[in-house]
Every structure is written in structure tokens, then in C-alpha cells.
Specification:
The complex is a heterotrimer of chains A (331), B (291) and C (257). Helices cover 71% and strands 1% of the residues of chain A. By secondary structure, chain A is mostly helical. Chain A has a two-stranded antiparallel ribbon. Chain B is mostly helical. Chain B has one domain: ABC transporter involved in vitamin B12 uptake, BtuC. In chain B, 73% of the residues lie in helices and 2% in strands. In chain B, a hairpin with a 2-residue loop joins strand 1 and strand 2. Chain C has two domains: 160 residues, 3-Layer(aba) Sandwich (Rossmann fold); 64 residues, no CATH class. In chain C, helix 3 crosses helix 5, helix 3 runs parallel beside helix 6 and helix 5 packs across helix 6. Chain C is globular and about 60 Å long. Classes of the chains: A mainly alpha (331), B mainly alpha (291), C alpha/beta (257). Chains in contact: A-B, A-C. Chain C: InterPro entries: AAA+_ATPase (IPR003593), ABC_AA/LPS_Transport (IPR051120), ABC_transporter-like_ATP-bd (IPR003439), ABC_transporter-like_CS (IPR017871), BCA_ABC_TP_C (IPR032823), P-loop_NTPase (IPR027417). Chain C: Keywords: ATP-binding, Nucleotide-binding, Transport. Chain C: Pfam families: ABC_tran, BCA_ABC_TP_C. Chain C: GO terms for molecular function: ATP binding; ATP hydrolysis activity.
């Protein structure tokens, strides 16, 4: 009996897909939020977990995706089919733009620059009132789906689910490729990576751009789902929330990102009424995971028989039966 | 107008410098940044508020209590939390301290948040402004600035004159050599977190009469202090002072000459611009090697 | 004949202190060139200049007559100059095989779209990369460890994997920074044999920094001696050993091997 990440993930997605048939509106909202959190966590893990870049701009890029998508609709009447991709591309462009100077910065300097960028973005959301409507936020009209009988909420639910599945599969494939290995190489040793022909700038810019794209898609979906956009959804607390997802799930693990997004959502909803308690819970979760379980929930998943997230293997399975390949050198 | 702005910038700047001082101290000793530094300061502020306003104890007792409480909190956090991750990676330390920051913030919200959203601290000296020529001075600002400078001066003396201070300096300069001459580096790390937090405690009690107290003030002050430390090169104590005052003055000028809403954002724009032009800060040299 | 690798008049100063002063040498194809010298003589700095990690203040680096001075390290790696490091530099988060496959980064072309779609090109390249990486591991005798995480290997095993990683893309030149450091005496004979096989079977030109004098004297075709950032002697091992300047500057003070 082997447990493959792909099967488990698809089974979970299938289970989520039948949710609208049985669930009440609240559960539907939670299911929808789960898809969005998964996209956020997978995107952030590419940058922080795989490429090792200590960036704090993810909540702000999430916000740029949400504002971009919603404002194009509200101000210019652009349909969501166009404004959602535009919002995601805007977040990508901004992510790439901040990555250019950020690439020269290392470690702590990068974290400060991205923190300052995140605060700057929040300030723009709050104070550019003619465009962003300021602190109170604004309502976004519900999307209409061309399929008869599909309500706005159900349509958004399935769109988010489909995008979450596709983007997770894409990331899982990417991290197994040469580009994924290049990101890990940059994380584990910049000088050695360069000496093997890995271009630091291109690899980091790719990680920044991809991660911003994921955040932007998630932001657009969030605006569609809530029908409402306000600055407070993209503040430092949400940045810490996203960090908690990938740390609890496991840095450098796609399956971990998915599980971590679920765990954080569960806790967030459980403590919905108490902001102070939420902060304590997520802070403690973040600190506890780093100290006690640095590999996160992914460390547990790795113990399942046959669970393999990433390895490029010496002998492809179709050519040699697994038993004939010496997996471990004798001690 | 200009002199008033400069003075108020100087006052805020000296607070930022004090925040930066604690950050620089921890960085010099451990090579990492304590993201919970601002929230430790915020907790110390609430502690001083409890002692001085709620329990009616004299201001100086509140100051001592806040410093001692902060020192203990810093020591416990370092011992229980950060010690284990210091050996692993920078990312882990930052994430662990970020976690602590939010725990403290939530704790403050649950404990003191119920009283009112923003707590005010009574003024230390009479609030009437003093006029010297056409300069307007608030006595409270002078007290805060003088107090911040005094804490920094004391700290400089501590570094120069005491055995512990010298050991900390030696550890920062060369951890391996420090270990060889018998300095217990782990204890120095612990001490750096604790002393850094104690400085934050003094800073919180000093600034509390000038500003309002609220749970979110901690992380805001942390970012400003972090920026001040980076502007000053991250390893230099005088650099932290200059960096803090630079940010305070930039904020005051932006608020005075452009619009009050630019007060917050001007610092962030200044930080980003500086890092684009000078990736290691205005006075930055190469980073120290990690232990 | 054009030398495989030549450096001409390399000078470099760190904050006013000269680290390299007018260093020049020419290495023929298929040669094993030893570089020795006391600590601080500039040996590792010279390797860093050759592979582009530190741009030189003055002078040129030529690969088969082509100027590669000032190219980025990744460009220079793509031209076929690879290296190993003094302290092992395997990527901890990758398996042994994946580490070696990273050495093929410049040989493979799959882009972002191939990566996210899992395209046919990607799969073919990956299969080929795995095969070539396995062969390189086989060459250094580490094929049995291919699927283990890199951090689980012993120090000596990590060094061998690093050599496989430097060889996998069939480079023209490999720069090795103290491959024998930390190895026991009976492993030294293995390293000696491995270095010769790298030259003879794979046609690689080797630049070898080594403190173990016995190894470097035996395996090198010729030796360059650095002292205080300048070349103080060059020639076949036997001649260098007798050179009075070398004896004075180096052998007399620092031979412990």
C-alpha cells in the first residue's frame, strides 16, 4: 500500500467539489476560503520555502490582486473574466518590480525592504481614496456565470477550487524540474549554485514573479468571494497568517502548503470572534512549529509509505522494479 | 515652523534610536534580528501603565518595573524560544521571533485592550509649551529626548566598562575567539536578548507620556527601529542614533510640509529608496559573520 | 598550442591590501596543475577570480584563447569551468542524485512552462539528466547512495559527490579547492587515482589547490607556487621541490603532510 501525494490531493479536491451539494452557506464559504488559502500558501512556499527568500510582501501582493480585480470592475466595468487575470498580472508585475532592487539585498535587508513595501501598499489602499475608497473598503458586484442555474457563490467556489488544483499541480511539477532544483540550490548555497551555472537573478526573479502571481490570483478570487474589499484584509496579521501556513505545513513542501493552509483556516474560523486570541494562537503556532517541528506537518507526511514529493530518481520506475534498486547504502 | 518640526522629529527620532539600539545589540551578539522587539517594548509600556496609572506607583518605580519586567521577558523568550533556533537558520529565527511578536500583541489586546482602544499616560511635567524667541518647546519632548540620550549614554558606558559589556563586544567581534578565551557564547546571546528588551522597557516608559499606548504600536515601532538600525549600518550604536533621528526628522518634515497622512508612509519610502541606492544602509559595511 | 586555461597579469586588492599581484600562468589541455603556497598566499582567491565569483582588479582570464574575464559565474560555468569547494557545498535539501543533476542546469533547456505543465521535453530531459547524473556518481563510486539525502552522507562521501557534480556536465576545466582535506591517509591513494582518472578517462584539465604536499607532488604534471599573492615558482614537481625560493617561502616553514 503506497500513499501518493497526487491521489490524496485529488481525493481531497473531489471531496471539496461535492460540498456545495450538501453544505450550508457558511461551510461553502469556508471551503471557498480553503481553495484561496491553498493558492496563497503554495505561492509563498515557492519563494520562502524553496528559494529561501525572506520576503514579507505576500499579503500586500494578495491585496494588489484583490484591488486590481475589483477596481477594474467597479471603475471601468471590466468583466471579471478579464479583470481577474489582469489583477493577477498586476500583482506579478509589481512582484517582479520589487524583486529587481530586492535581488541585490540579502537576508535581513530584503525582509526590511519588503516589510516597508507592504506598509507602503497598505497606506496606498488606505489613503488613495478617490480610487481605493479608503479605510472603509468598497463593495464588489457579484459575478454572473453564463451557465444557467449557477449562482454567483457556487460559480466562484468552483472557479477557486479549479484554480487551486491547477496551480498546486503546476507548482508540484515545477519544483521537481530543473528550475525547482535551481531554486533549492539558491536557497542552500548561492555561491555553489552560481558555480554550477545557475543564474541567481533569473532564479530569484522567477520565484518572486511566480509567488506574486499566485498571490494575485488568490486576491482576485477573494474579492469575488467576499463581494467586498477593504485594507484590513491585507495587513501584517495576514502576512503572519500566511507565514504560519507554510511553517506549520512545512517549508519547501507543496503538500505541506496545502495541509498548512487547511490547519490555519480551521484555527482561524474556530477563533473567529477573538482577535487577540487569534493573534496568540497564530503567533504560538508559528513559534512552536519553528522550534519544535521545523519540518512542519510535511515531516509527518513523509513517513507515509510510498509518499514522495519531489525526488528525481536514479532509475525510472518503468525500467527497473523498485526492489532491484539499492535505495540505501548498507551501513 | 521648521524649528518646531525639527524638534519634534528629534524627539520621535530619539525614541526610534532607542528601539534601534536594542535591535543593533541583539544583531551584534547573535547575527539575527528580533522581530518581537517592538512588541516587547509595547508590553513594557502597558506594564508601566499598570504600575503608574492603575496602581498609582511613582513614575520612577514604574520605569524600574518596566525595565525589570522587560529584561525577564526577554531572558525567558530567549531561553525557551530562540536558543533552539539560533543554531539553525536566519529564516527560522525571524519566523520564531515574528511568532512571539504576535503572541505578545494578542496578549496585550486581551489584557489591556478591554479598557480602551488607546490608553493615555499622564504627562510627567507641566504640558504648557515654553517659548524661546520664536521657538516653541514642549517640556515633555525635552524630557523624552534627554531620557533617551541618557539611556544610550549609560548603555555605551556599560559596553565599555563592565566585564559583561566587554564580553558581549568580544562575542560580537569574533564568536569563535570569544569561545576560545572562555566566554560562554550562549549566555551572551541570552543576555543580549534580555538587555535589548530592557532597553525597550526604558524606551516604552519614556515615550508613553508622549504617545498613546495600543497593541499595534509595537510592530510599527519595530519597523522604524529596524529601519533606523539598517540606515546606521546595523552594527553601529552611533549609527543607530543617527538613523533613528534621520527617520524621525523625515517623518516630521513630510507631515509638516506635505500632508499629515504622509507621516507614516514617508519613513517606508525613505527606507525603500535607501536600500535601492545603498543596499547595506547609509553607513553599512560588510555584514558580520554568523557564529 | 593555445593553453586550455590562461591567466594574465591578475591583480586584486581588498581595501588597499594586495591579495593577488600580477599572477600569470598557462595550463595545457589535459594537464593536472597543482597550486601550492602558504596560507593567505591567494590560492582560493585565484580560483574565485577564474570562476567569476570575484572580478579581478586587473588582468585577463582566457579559456581556450577566449576572454572570459568579467563574465558572471553562471556564464563561466556554462562555458565549461566547474569547481569544488574547500568546505563541502552540497545542497542539503536535495538528494545526492538531484545534487549532481543540478550540475546539468546549463545543459538543459526546459523553461517555466515546461516546468509547470510537466511537458514531454521536460520529462525527456529529466530522464536523461537522471541517467547522466547516475553515471557521474558511478564514476566516483557513489552510485549506491544516489537516492539518499545529501546531508545524510559522511564528509568524505560528500566530497566525492561534489566531484561528480563538477564533472557531470563534461567540463573543460575543473578547479578543485583542497579535495583531500579531512580525508584519512588510505583515502589519499583513492583521491590520487580518481584525479588521474578524471584527466585520463574524461579529458578534463585540473587545477588543484592542495595542502597535502605528498598528493600534489605525485599527481601534478606541473606546479605553480604562490607566495603573498604572486607567483614565486613554476615547473615540474621535482624542480619546484628543489627551488630555493620555494624552500625559503614555503616548504621550510609549512610542510606537515
Amino acid at each position: 500500500m503506497t500513499v501518493r501525494p497526487l491521489w490524496v490531493g485529488l481525493a481531497a479536491a473531489l471531496a471539496l467539489a461535492v460540498l456545495p451539494l450538501v453544505a450550508n452557506p457558511y461551510l461553502l464559504f469556508v471551503g471557498n476560503q480553503l481553495s484561496i488559502f491553498v493558492i496563497l500558501a503554495v505561492g509563498l512556499n515557492l519563494l520562502v520555502g524553496y528559494c529561501g527568500q525572506l520576503a514579507f510582501a505576500h499579503a500586500a501582493l494578495f491585496g494588489i490582486g484583490a484591488y486590481g480585480t475589483a477596481l477594474l470592475k467597479v471603475h471601468l466595468g471590466v468583466p471579471f473574466a478579464v479583470s481577474l487575470p489582469c489583477g493577477a498580472l498586476l500583482a506579478t508585475a509589481v512582484g517582479l518590480a520589487i524583486s529587481l532592487p530586492a535581488l541585490r539585498l540579502s537576508g535581513l535587508y530584503l525582509s526590511l525592504a519588503t516589510l516597508a513595501f507592504a506598509q507602503f501598499t497598505l497606506w496606498v489602499f488606505l489613503h488613495w481614496e478617490p480610487v481605493t475608497f479608503g479605510a472603509g473598503g468598497f463593495r464588489v458586484p457579484a459575478p454572473s456565470w453564463p451557465i444557467p442555474g449557477v449562482t454567483a457563490g457556487i460559480g466562484t467556489f468552483y472557479l477557486a477550487l479549479a484554480l487551486a488544483v491547477l496551480l498546486t499541480l503546476a507548482a508540484a511539477s515545477l519544483v521537481r524540474s530543473r528550475l525547482g532544483r535551481a531554486m533549492i540550490a539558491v536557497r542552500d548555497g548561492e555561491v555553489a549554485a552560481q558555480a554550477l551555472g545557475v543564474d541567481l537573478l533569473r532564479t530569484k526573479a522567477m520565484a518572486f514573479g511566480l509567488s506574486a502571481f499566485y498571490a494575485g490570483v488568490a486576491g482576485g478570487l477573494q474579492a469575488l468571494m467576499l463581494g467586498y474589499v477593504a485594507p484590513e484584509s491585507f495587513d501584517l496579521f495576514h502576512m503572519a497568517l500566511m507565514k504560519a501556513m507554510i511553517v506549520v505545513g512545512g517549508l519547501g513542501s507543496i503538500a505541506g502548503s496545502v495541509v498548512g493552509a487547511g490547519a490555519v483556516l480551521f484555527l482561524l474560523e474556530g477563533l473567529r470572534a477573538f482577535k487577540g486570541a487569534q493573534e496568540i494562537a497564530f503567533g504560538a503556532l508559528l513559534m512552536g512549529a519553528v522550534i519544535l517541528a521545523p519540518r512542519g506537518l510535511a515531516g509527518l507526511l513523509d513517513r507515509l509509505p510510498g509518499w514522495q514529493e519531489r525526488y528525481l530518481r536514479a532509475a525510472p520506475a518503468e525500467r527497473a522494479p523498485a526492489a532491484a534498486v539499492p535505495r540505501e547504502a548498507p551501513p | 515652523m521648521l524649528s518646531y518640526l525639527l524638534l519634534s522629529g528629534l524627539t520621535t527620532g530619539s525614541i526610534y534610536a532607542l528601539v534601534a539600539l536594542g535591535i543593533v545589540l541583539v544583531y551584534k551578539a547573535t547575527g539575527t534580528i528580533n522581530f518581537a522587539h517592538g512588541d516587547q517594548l509595547m508590553i513594557a509600556g502597558f506594564l508601566a501603565f499598570t504600575l503608574h496609572v492603575l496602581l498609582g506607583l511613582p513614575y520612577l518605580v514604574a520605569l524600574a518595573g518596566a525595565v525589570a519586567g522587560s529584561f525577564a521577558l526577554g531572558a525567558v523568550a530567549a531561553q525557551v524560544g530562540f536558543r533552539a533556533v539560533l543554531r539553525t537558520s536566519l529564516v527560522n529565527v525571524v519566523l520564531a521571533t515574528l511568532g512571539l511578536a504576535f503572541v505578545l500583541k494578542g496578549f496585550a489586546r486581551l489584557t489591556w485592550g478591554g479598557i480602551s482602544d488607546y490608553l493615555s499616560f499622564p504627562p510627567l511635567v507641566r504640558p504648557e509649551p515654553i517659548l524661546i524667541g520664536d521657538m516653541v518647546l514642549l517640556p515633555q519632548q525635552l524630557v523624552v529626548t534627554a531620557g533617551a540620550l541618557a539611556v544610550m549614554g549609560l548603555f555605551a558606558l556599560f559596553f565599555r566598562l563592565t566585564t559583561i559589556g566587554k564580553a558581549m563586544q568580544a562575542t560580537a567581534d569574533n564568536p569563535r575567539a570569544a569561545r576560545l578565551v572562555g566566554i560562554r557564547v550562549e549566555r551572551i546571546h541570552l543576555l543580549a536578548f534580555a538587555v535589548g528588551a530592557a532597553i525597550a522597557g526604558a524606551g516604552a516608559t519614556l515615550m508613553a507620556p508622549l504617545t498613546l499606548l495600543y497593541p499595534d504600536i509595537g510592530f510599527m515601532l519595530f519597523i522604524k527601529g529596524f529601519a533606523a538600525a539598517v540606515l546606521g549600518g546595523l552594527t553601529s550604536l552611533p549609527g543607530a542614533l543617527v538613523g533613528g533621528i534621520a527617520i524621525g526628522v523625515v517623518e516630521a518634515l513630510a507631515a509638516g510640509y506635505i500632508h499629515s497622512s504622509f507621516l507614516e508612509v514617508s519613513a517606508f519610502v525613505a527606507i525603500m529608496a535607501t536600500l535601492v541606492l545603498r543596499p547595506r544602509g547609509l553607513m553599512g559595511g560588510p555584514p558580520p559573520r554568523r557564529a | 598550442m593555445t593553453p586550455r586555461l590562461a591567466v594574465e597579469g591578475i591583480g586584486l586588492a581588498f581595501g588597499g591590501v594586495a591579495a593577488l599581484r600580477g599572477v600569470g600562468m598557462a595550463v595545457a589541455p589535459g594537464e593536472i596543475r597543482g597550486i601550492i603556497g602558504p596560507n593567505g598566499a591567494g590560492k582560493t582567491t585565484l580560483l574565485n577570480v577564474i570562476c567569476g565569483i570575484i572580478p579581478p582588479g586587473e588582468g585577463r582570464v582566457l579559456l581556450d584563447g577566449q576572454d572570459i574575464t568579467g563574465l558572471s559565474p553562471s556564464r563561466i560555468a556554462a562555458r565549461g569551468v566547474r569547481r569544488t569547494f574547500q568546505t563541502t557545498a552540497l545542497f542539503r535539501g536535495l538528494t545526492v542524485l538531484e545534487n549532481v543533476a543540478t550540475g546539468l542546469h546549463t545543459e538543459t533547456r526546459a523553461g517555466l512552462l515546461d516546468g509547470v505543465l510537466g511537458s514531454r521535453r521536460l520529462r525527456e530531459e529529466e530522464r536523461e539528466a537522471a541517467e547522466r547524473a547516475r553515471q557521474a556518481l558511478d564514476f566516483v563510486g557513489m552510485a549506491a547512495c544516489a537516492d539518499r539525502p545529501a546531508h545524510a552522507l559522511s564528509f568524505g562521501q560528500q566530497r566525492l559527490v561534489e566531484i561528480a557534480r563538477a564533472l557531470v556536465a563534461e567540463p573543460r576545466v575543473v578547479l578543485m579547492d583542497e579535495p583531500a582535506v579531512g580525508l584519512s591517509l588510505n583515502r589519499l591513494a583513492d583521491i590520487d587515482r580518481l584525479l588521474r582518472r578524471i584527466r585520463d578517462e574524461r579529458g578534463v584539465t585540473l587545477l588543484l589547490i592542495e595542502h597535502v604536499i605528498r598528493l600534489v607532488m605525485e599527481v601534478s604534471d606541473s606546479i605553480t607556487v604562490l607566495g603573498s599573492g604572486a607567483v614565486i615558482a613554476e615547473g615540474p614537481p621535482a624542480a619546484v621541490r628543489e627551488d630555493p625560493a620555494v624552500v625559503a617561502a614555503y616548504l621550510g616553514t609549512a610542510v606537515h603532510a
